[in-house]
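can u do me a favor
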């Protein structure tokens, strides 16, 4: 999976937006104004994804390509090196999990709408 695949997936998610609030090379993907993924366009080999705090350590211990979120809250974010041996479906799953974590933190009406749209996109 490369940065263009990541971009395509992120922008396909309901009400996702691509921003560059930090500098012109750091892509930030948001839903309802909240970040769910960061990526450096110049490097393109790694992404930061939000992760359930109950799972961050287990993923880091299991996969060498997963490290504490670079420049992020280490309790909630992981950096995923996409240049390693991780299967693409696993990276996609983590991106979707990150999106869902953010959506699940939204007010109920907004959350239900976005989750319904996400499920409709799967069919």
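np, heres the sequence
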């Amino acid at each position: 999976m490369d940065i263009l695949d990541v971009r395509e997936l992120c922008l396909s998610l309901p009400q996702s937006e691509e921003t560059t609030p930090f500098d012109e090379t750091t892509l930030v993907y948001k839903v309802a104004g909240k970040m769910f993924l960061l990526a450096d366009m110049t490097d393109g080999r790694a992404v930061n994804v939000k992760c359930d705090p109950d799972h961050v350590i287990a993923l880091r211990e299991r996969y060498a390509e997963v490290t504490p979120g670079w420049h992020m809250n280490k309790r909630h974010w992981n950096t995923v090196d996409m240049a390693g041996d991780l299967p693409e479906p696993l990276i996609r799953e983590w991106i979707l999990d990150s999106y869902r974590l953010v959506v699940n933190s939204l007010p109920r009406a907004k959350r239900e709408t976005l989750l319904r749209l996400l499920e409709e996109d799967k069919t």
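The helical segments are 3-12, 56-62, 88-104, 108-122. hope that helps!!
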